[in-house]
Amino acid sequence: SAEFGLHPTLPIYSGGLGVLAGDHIKSASDLGLKLVAVSLLYRKGYLRQRLSEDGWQLDVPGALDPEFEPATPLLGPDGNQLVIEVALDDAEQPLHIAIWQVLVGRQTLLLLDSDVEGNPEWTRSISSRLYGGDTEHRLRQEIILGIGGVRALEAAGFEIDYWHGNEGHAAFHLLERCRKLVLEHGRPFDEAVKLVRRSSVFTTHTPVPAGHDVFAAELMQRYFSHYWPSLGIDEDAFLALGEHSSTGPGFNLTALSFRLSGHANGVSRTHGAVTREMWSDMWPDRAIEDVPVQSVTNGVHTATWIGRHMADLYFTYLGDGWRSDSDSEEIWSRVDDIPDDLFWAMRRRSKRSMLRYLRERARLRWIVDTGQQANALSSGLFFEEGCLTIGFARRFATYKRATLLFHNPERLAAILTNPECPVQLVFAGKAHPADDGGKSLIQQLVFNARNPMFAGRIAFAEDYDMELASYLVAGVDVWLNNPKAPMEASGTSGMKAAANGVPNLSILDGWWTEGWMQDGSNGWGIAPSTAGHDLDDGLEANALYDLLENEVVPLFYDRGPDGVPHDWIAVSKASVRSVAPAFSARRMIKDYVEQLYGPAAAGS
Question: What's the pLDDT tens digit per position in 491-506?
Answer without folding.
Answer: 999 999 999 999 999 9
